Amino acid sequence: MRNLKITLQYDGSNYVGWQRQASGTSIQGLLEEAFAPIAGTRVTVHGAGRTDAGVHALAQVASVAFAGTHDSAVLVRALNTVLPRDVRVLSIEDVPPDFHARFSAVGKIYEYRIVNAPVMSPFLVRYAWHVTYPVDVAAMKTAATHLAGAHDFAAFQGARAHVRSGLRTIHSIDWQNGHGRAAPLVCQIHGDGFLRHMVRNIVGTLVEIGVGRWRSDKIVEILASRDRSRAGPTAPAHGLFLVQVEYPPESTLLVGHP
Amino acid sequence: MRNLKITLQYDGSNYVGWQRQASGTSIQGLLEEAFAPIAGTRVTVHGAGRTDAGVHALAQVASVAFAGTHDSAVLVRALNTVLPRDVRVLSIEDVPPDFHARFSAVGKIYEYRIVNAPVMSPFLVRYAWHVTYPVDVAAMKTAATHLAGAHDFAAFQGARAHVRSGLRTIHSIDWQNGHGRAAPLVCQIHGDGFLRHMVRNIVGTLVEIGVGRWRSDKIVEILASRDRSRAGPTAPAHGLFLVQVEYPPESTLLVGHP
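Output (structure tokens, whole complex):
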């Protein structure tokens, strides 16, 4: 049995998110349905991260056990022929048997986009949060620096999430003005892992600081409280992009490899 | 009666084009319907260029006679409240009575975007032409240089178009690799005016050269022929953006102004 690493890109606007749900179309479901006739059997595809409804991915990673002998380039084309145009397989690679898209991941990069202007671009309606009140980017940058490092991020965890530990490490977090005409403001955040809604809750909190509701150092207090009710609102899903999933060098995945 | 210059942006995907049609929703129709309750009467809005179905605009310009006393910023907000999210009024200015969005225009800039890669970006499906066969950008650049200047562009005119003269001046035309991840290939073309389908027919012809069907200098022969059947196919509408409409300095518009 081969183990395949699939890198895919999607516009999340029309889907219920990565994960299969009782109703609605999920990316995982689409991918599994596209694989089934090729594999000649039902397959289960494991994703690196469960992007929510409306969240986009520039490079989501999934893994799947596959018995076929198809060349990976042929597989990419076959899947893209079946998948809707807003979901694209970018590449497929054979990986060692112990590679798992979710459990092997050691880091992720997300970007959150905001259009901070009176009039929203018609081209970014589904790809950025429209914040009309002018934000103080310097204050949001300062506040963001307090989040870098290893912390218990329970204050930024989705209310219904249940995980044993809120301890995560943010390697870097910063705001940048985008390039080009539309020029959204982009928050890039790189960490070893993220709690449910963590990026959106962080962005929602930083925007409260940006619009002047709170001072920059309020974030220190919120973080220390580990209390979700102290943080800002959850920023809307459609501004969020999963940009990259990181894995250790391939050799280290091979358990028992000389 | 005031004369207003309206600058607007739209995603043309869901519309039959700028101009009102017997059936389907047009940008002109949407704008006129949005104005009517504010003006208290039906109004006619004149656009600088009749973008086709699926063509986008970053800065289309329209003019309208308006009797109201509303502040222009208030008008912008009122119109955007009524218009769908894929059509946005960017600004409104009072202009001299003889300003006409179409007849006063002295130049236009269009951009045509191509994604030249095996897999199409899900985010550019509606905003770029997917050309899978690798194109020779240098050959397309060379061919494009032959189009700059004053020529009779009848060979690149839409088959059903009927205008007295095909004489137009292209001030500049060039291809550039886009910035950022998706990085579409962009053809920017700046001229004093364009025949129907002219930009799309030029791009369709340049792509024939890019994929190696024709040599670069074939374009000289096509241009000289003034025969539409000699040029390449019409590139799809959804890759085209009206980027800018140029007008003379305001004072020269004021007929009889001291």
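Chain B is about 20% helix and 30% strand.
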